[in-house]
Amino acid sequence: MSFHLLIAILPIIATCLAGSLMLHAWQRRENNCARVFSLIMASVFVWCFSTILEQISPSELLQVTFGRAQYFGIAPCPTLWLIFTLRYTRKDRWIRTPFLLGFCVVPIISLLLALSDHWHGWIWKTVSFTSVPFPKIIVEHGWFFNYVLSPYGYLITMLGMGVLLSDSFSGSQLYRKQTVILLCA
After folding, report:
1. Which of 6, 72, 169, 172 has the greatest number of beta carbons closer than 10 A?
2. pTM exceeds 0.85, yes or no
């Protein structure tokens, strides 16, 4: 087995796990929490599957294509996480159209910029290709990725974790254990 296939093992495991959890949650989609969790897992599945394809692709063109395809999973993941934590903690009053629209602006812009990045370089400032020790692209991220997308993603993810953490103190012992498992995951 070549080295570049070996490094694809972790994304393969993550893809299988995300796909299994997505299907499991989708079977319970009548529950609002399960539906949103299924969407998060779909996002992670797309992200990880695109990572696998990027890592095993032999050419620069294919690696760049699959690298950009990852943004279909990367962009919505933090917002879906926040929506899930609000549903899980029964704070549905926050999930209204203005809230959703506001929190979808950065993911939508990020996806559009990732798809058109070859014209402006705001997501990937530079991309180079090396074939030693195996074919891979080397990316220097652009200003939008560094100053908008990444900080937004971390902030929204931490906000969701904060919602879970603050709510865990008011729940039952079982609810606290579930919350700890979610936070660890």
Report:
1. 72
2. yes
